[in-house]
Backbone:
């Protein structure tokens, strides 16, 4: 007797059989196609047509059409303008560094008569200090001040730069963060360096050599 349950079971069975049959047909078709391609020694036109069919079946043409509809702006490169921009930026950077050097030089010349044999600036050879590691300088530094060194071969009356030199170095760095180490050395073997830092072997340093 044909019941709804029996009918439903038969339909599912039939669908499963058809599904398996279709898969077998597809596999056979692909196998025949592959054999045909080999037999024809990879006919270029046949392969090209097949690839076009595959491309269409997975929607590449549709995606390309949709992509072509997207708004875009074409930018053309201007090598001459780009080179001019780079030159302008380099020139501005060099001008900034030159201004730093001029500012320190002017401060030294204006206060050279105020250099003294004693200094209140920290010594670069001393480990004491509020140092914080800075990745740009790759050292522990103190941006609040410069430090000084004196060569062992310097005379006892060798004079240290005035504190205002340290102040102007700090001001220049505050205004231009591209500047790294600022240094000034005297003919007497004394150096002032900004920012302040600890040198492991600064006693052997002599700016004259």
Residues:
């Amino acid at each position: 007797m044909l019941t709804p349950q029996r009918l439903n079971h038969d339909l599912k069975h039939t669908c499963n059989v058809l599904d398996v049959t279709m898969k077998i047909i597809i596999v056979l078709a692909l196998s025949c196609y592959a054999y045909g391609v080999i037999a024809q020694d990879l006919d270029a036109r046949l392969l090209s047509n097949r690839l076009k069919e595959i491309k269409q079946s997975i929607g590449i043409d549709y995606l390309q059409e949709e992509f072509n509809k997207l708004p875009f702006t074409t930018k053309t490169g201007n090598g001459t303008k780009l080179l001019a921009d780079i030159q302008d930026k380099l020139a501005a950077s060099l001008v900034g560094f030159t201004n730093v050097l001029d500012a320190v030089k002017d401060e030294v010349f204006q206060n050279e008569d105020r250099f003294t044999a004693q200094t209140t600036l920290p010594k670069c050879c001393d480990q004491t200090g509020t140092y914080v590691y800075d990745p740009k300088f790759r050292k522990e530094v103190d941006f609040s001040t410069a430090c000084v060194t004196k060569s062992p071969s310097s005379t006892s009356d060798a004079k240290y730069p005035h504190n205002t030199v340290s102040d102007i170095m700090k001001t220049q760095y505050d205004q231009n963060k591209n500047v790294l180490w600022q240094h000034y050395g005297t003919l007497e073997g004394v150096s002032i360096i900004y920012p302040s830092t600890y040198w492991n072997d600064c006693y052997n340093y002599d700016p004259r050599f």
About this structure: The helical segments are 4-39, 44-57, 60-68, 79-111, 163-175. The first strand starts at residue 132 and ends at 134. The radius of gyration is 40 Å. The beta strands are 132-134, 139-142, 147-150, 182-185, 190-194, 196-197.
